[in-house]
Amino acid sequence: MSSKTSKFALALSCSVTIGIVAYVHIKQQSDREKMHEGVIRDVERQQRRKIENLYILEKQNELTKKLKKELGN
Q1: Which whole-number Å values give the CA distances from 52 to 38, 45, 68, in the listed order?
Q2: Within 13 Å, how many C-alpha atoms sit on residue 41's CB side?
Q3: Where are the domains of the chain?
Q4: 2 to each of 7, 10, 14, how far by Cα in Å?
Q5: What is the pLDDT of residues 22-32, one digit of tens each?
Q6: 55 SS3 class
Q7: Is this model's pTM higher than 0.70 or not?
Q8: For residues 33-52, b (16+ Cβ closer than 10 Å) or e, as one string?
Q9: What is the pLDDT of residues 36-71, one digit of tens each?
C-alpha cells in the first residue's frame, strides 16, 4: 500500500515541478515579448517627435523670414 502512495506522491511532485518550470518559461517569453514591443513603441514615438520638431522648426523659420521681410520694409 505504501508503495502506491509513494509512487503517487512522486508522480504528483514531478507533475507540479514540470508545471512550475513550464509556467516560468512561458512567463519569461511573454515578458521578453512585452519588453521588445516597448522598445519598438519608443522608437516609433521618437520618430514622431522628430517629425513634429522638424515641422515646428520649419514653421518658425518661415515666420522668422516673414518677420524680417516685414521689418525690412
Answers
A1: 21, 11, 24
A2: 6
A3: 1-73
A4: 8, 12, 18
A5: 999 999 999 99
A6: helix
A7: no
A8: eeeeeeeeeeeeeeeeeeee
A9: 999 999 999 999 999 999 999 999 999 999 999 888
